[in-house]
Amino acid sequence: MEEEVSLVELFDIIKKHFKYIVLTTLATTVIASIYTLFLVTPMYQSSTEILVTQSSSENTVVSQADINTSISLINTYEDIIRNNVILDPVIEELDLDMTTGALRESIIVQSESNSQVFSIRVENENPYQAAEITNATADIFQERIFDIMNVDNVTIISEATPNMNPASPNNLLNIIIGFLLGAMIGIGLVFLRELTDTTVKSEEYVEQATGWVSLGHISTFTKQDLVVKTPLPKVNKEIPVAKKTNNDMTRTRRRV
Q1: Which of 166, 211, 236, 240 is the Cys-Cys partner for 42 at CB 3.0 to 4.6 Å?
Q2: What is the CATH number of the domain that holds 126?
Q3: How many domains does the chain fold into?
Q4: Residue 149 sits in which domain range?
Q5: CA 152/CA 135 separation, integer angstroms
């Protein structure tokens, strides 16, 4: 038999287990807050911008073909910057306590379409070290690109400075995600519990499932319900005292 669940029934299920949903939501929100604020190490970013021109010589006219050639070279420059030929001298110059692979993972080279400018962005736990690595990478790249490709068309147009605002984690976003995730988990568990519950919940369900008519129901009693709660009869606390009659007085006199 196919069962149809209306929106009213769904709302009743949520209302019935609303306390459980709230507790689950609060728990995940607290966990996300603790993880974001106390367990995750903040990361700082610093960047510098580099201009690629066709040649460093003084040209009176720059054609569109020259610009397109400079733009096409940027992809090649990106690979060179993240290569050991640049990264090893950076580690040696700054005496960094990290491997070449770790340094490569922290460097991001980003370029815009149809632009001769690209940026070198470095992410590090220390904002000052992030700026130092960025500037050293740009300087060494500018110095060695001539030996590598026999070109002298790289100009550093902005120097990296320490950025004291952490780039990650996003505290507010993580807390919101924890809140929404907790609400979804709580609602999902509530509906899963209701769907797997095979107990009979109402007379209407029995009538629809079997086609029988309910004639009555048996209530459940506890021991306290079986105790007769009837008030005890009032007891007269006065003790009756026998009164002496005239016959009793006459009998007393004769005995004397």
Answers
A1: 166
A2: 3.30.70.1130
A3: 1
A4: 44-158
A5: 18
